[in-house]
Amino acid sequence: MEAQEEKSQRRDRAAIVADVRDALVRVLQHKPFNDVTVDELAREAGLSRTAFYFYYNDKNQVLGAVLEGLRDVAIEQAAEWWSGEGEPAVMIHSVTRNIGALWETHAGVLRAAVEVMSYDPEFSKFYNGLMDDFIGATQEHLRRERDAGKLRQDVDPDRSAEVLVWMGERCHYVGLLKGRTPEETADALTDIWVHALYPDGTASA
Q: Tens digit of pLDDT for each residue in 134-148?
């Protein structure tokens, strides 16, 4: 009986923290992050201000939790390219288009993240850590591609992964601001990534 009660409490807590994350996503659809207050976020999630602080330290922590979820989704999406199966151009386009779709559907959250990291050193460190997770997995994939003789001879897997992943992040952000579709951004990124990494004619769709 006690075990069931503990399980129920854990489930309740998980539901509450998810509600707060969802509340932030909704609020950021129509207002800047700096204008969002803890009181507003708590009300949107059906909590009191006091209860909010039982689950989160501040709104930055909620933003970080949402971003961690998006990082996990992006890593799942990129796994098809990292698997090494299929034509690289097809896989890269699919990954960059899907990640672009995340930027489109979570525009408020991702704009807020870029904004906050520009003035908050602690949050910037956190955001860079999320990017490092993606960069690290890409570096491992490119090392495998290099060892299999698939990459251009002069490609440095570690440096290339860092540059290309950050390029993708900035392009998705700018594309969002300029109203470009995920497909348009994916087209541009795929062309650049493929020519930067693979010998001409070996990675085309």
A: 999 999 999 999 999
CB 100 within 8 A of CB 172: yes
What CATH number matches the domain at 58-205, 3.30.930.10, 1.10.357.10, 2.40.50.100, 3.40.190.10?
Answer: 1.10.357.10
- pLDDT tens figures, 61-119: 999 999 999 999 999 999 988 988 889 999 999 999 999 999 999 999 999 999 999 99
- Characterize 168-200 residue by residue with b for buried, 16 or more Cβ atoms within 10 angstroms of its Cβ, and e for exposed: bbebbbebbeeebebeebbeebbebbbeebbee
The domain segmentation of the chain, as residue ranges, is 1-56, 58-205
